[in-house]
Design brief:
By secondary structure, the protein is α+β, with helices and mostly antiparallel strands. The protein contains three helices and three strands. A three-stranded antiparallel β-sheet has the order 1-3-2.
C-alpha cells in the first residue's frame, strides 16, 4: 500500500491507498461522499491526511 510522505495526499495517492479508480473518487466527490479536498490554484486537488483519516474512521461499520 503506497502512502504519502507529507500532510496531503494527491488524488492518485488516495486512490492507490484505497485500491479504487480515479473515476470512483470523482464520482464519490460529486455525490458528497469523498473526504474534504483542497483545490490548488492550478486546479489540482489535495486531501489533508487528517481529513482522510477522519473520513475513513467515519466509514467504520460498528454492526
Amino acid at each position: 500500500m503506497a502512502t504519502a510522505t507529507g500532510k496531503h495526499l494527491t488524488v492518485a495517492e488516495f486512490c492507490t491507498e484505497l485500491g479504487i479508480a480515479r473515476s470512483t473518487f470523482y464520482d464519490w466527490r460529486a455525490k458528497g461522499r469523498a473526504p474534504r479536498c483542497l483545490k490548488l490554484p492550478n486546479g489540482d486537488l489535495r486531501i489533508r491526511r487528517t481529513d482522510y483519516d477522519r473520513w475513513l474512521n467515519s466509514l467504520e461499520d460498528t454492526a
